[in-house]
Amino acid sequence: MAALGWLTPRRRSATARSVLAGEAAAEAARKSSLQLEQEREESAAEPEAAEPEFPVVGDVRAAAFFDLDNTVMQGAAIFHFGRGLYKRKFFQRRELARFAWAQVWFRLAGVEDPAHMQEARDSALSIVKGHRVSELMSIGEEIYDEYMADRIWPGTRGLAQAHLDAGQKVWLVTAAPVETATIIARRLGLTGALGTVAESVDGVYTGRLVGELLHGPAKAEAVRALAAAEGLDLNRCAAYSDSHNDIPMLSLVGHPYAVNPDTKLRKHAKDRDWRLRDYRTGRKAAKVGIPAAAGLGALAGGTAAAVALHRRRH
Predict the structure, then answer these.
(1) pLDDT tens, 221-280?
(2) Candidates 59, 69, 165, 242; catalytic one
(3) Confidence of residue 164 (pLDDT cuts 50, 70, 90)
(4) Catalytic-residue membership of 67
(5) Catalytic residue flag (residue 69)
(6) CB count, 10 Å around CB of 99?
(7) Pairing, β 63-67 against β 169-177
(8) Which of 86, 213, 246, 260 could pair with 242 as two cysteines, CB 3.0-4.6 Å apart?
(9) Out of 59, 67, 145, 262, which one is annotated catalytic?
(10) Rounded to two decimals, what is the model's pTM?
C-alpha cells in the first residue's frame, strides 16, 4: 500500500496567506450576496422606468400644432371645399375639371411645381372673388358635413384630444383658407386655426391673397408668431404633419411628430429620431407614404371628380 501513497492527498497546514485569502473570499461572497439581494428587492419595489408622460398635464406654456391635409383629414380641405362649391353652381364644369386635374397631377408627380401651384391658387381665388365672407362661411359649415366630417383620421383626432385633455391649446396650421380651417377646428373642438388669408374689403373677397399661401416656411413663421403672442415655449410644444414641406414647422418645436409621413419626411424623421404615427391602411401607404398635397389637393378626391365628370359627359 505504501507504493500507492502518492495517490493520497497530503494534508498541508494553512499558511497565514491562505487563511487571509479564504477569509477575504468569504467576505466578498457575503457582500456580493447581500448586494444582489438588495438589488432584487429594489427592482421588485420600483417599477421599470417608463417614458415621461406627454403631453404634460397643466403645462399651459405648451401647445400643439397640427397640419390639416392628410394629417388630420384624408385629402385636401380646399378640394373638398371646391367640390361643395361646384355642387352649388359657383363655377362651371370646365373649371372643376381644370382644378381636379391640378390635384391629380400633383399627387402623381409628388413634387411641387410652381406653375401648378399658382394655377390651383388662382383657380380657388377666382371662385370666391366677389362673394361675401359670411356667405362662404355659412356654406363651409354645410360642406364640412357633406365631404369632410367622415374623413377625419381617428388616430390623429385622438392625439389632438390628448393635448386638450392636458389643458393645452391645439391649433390647425394649413394652407387651406383660414375660414375653412376655422370651421374644421371648431367642429373638432380645437382652439383655432392658422390658414391662408384671402383679402376682403367690406366683407367681400377681392380675389387676392394677403401675402402668400400659408405653406412651408410660412407655416413656421405663423407658429413662431402665435407662440410669441400666446407666451408659449416652443421647446415644450408639439407639431404634427405628414409632409416634408412642413419640416420647418416641425423643427421649431421640442416634440415633432411625423403622421402618415411621405417618403422624404419619413426618412428625415428616422434620421432625427422623431416619433412616427401612421394611421393609413395598406402596405404601400405604410412603406412608401403618400406625396404631400401642400394644401392644394388630394388624389382620391381629384380622381373621383374626374371620373364623375367623365361619366356625365357620356
Answers:
(1) 999 999 999 999 999 999 999 999 999 999 999 999 999 999 999 999 999 999 999 998
(2) 69
(3) very high
(4) yes
(5) yes
(6) 24
(7) parallel
(8) 260
(9) 67
(10) 0.70
